[in-house]
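Notes to self, Biopolymer transporter ExbD:
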Amino acid sequence: MGMNVGESGGDDEVVSAINTTPLVDVMLVLLIIFLITIPVATHTVPVKLPTETNQANETKPENINIAVNKDGDVFWNMALIPDNETLVTKLKEEAVKVPQPEVQIRGDQTARYEFVGRVIVACQRAGIVKVGFITEPPPRG
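result:
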């Protein structure tokens, strides 16, 4: 496509032609993008994805409930655990039971991850196999 350059004459003609070069460039780019992305969207491996199930977990009496407050204090049921080594010792006593009890951690929403992470490491050191987290169910509606 060409471009009209005014002559040095003095004829003031109005050019009524529309320059379609930018339109063609944009359309070619869109065509290339669609040609590349459509096969990716249509050629995926067919799998049946699992559906979400949110079942209430029953707390058994043999489960160990550990709570971590926002300041990092660790509570075994309602008793304060003074340090991490005491927690590991108590968990080792529970780890040898058959069947091994599950540790359920209730972490405060504003607690730093480090505090909950210490409890998880203590469970690992003690040999606890199953650790779960207690959360608040989402509001209905």
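- The chain has three helices and five strands.
- The radius of gyration is 33 Å.
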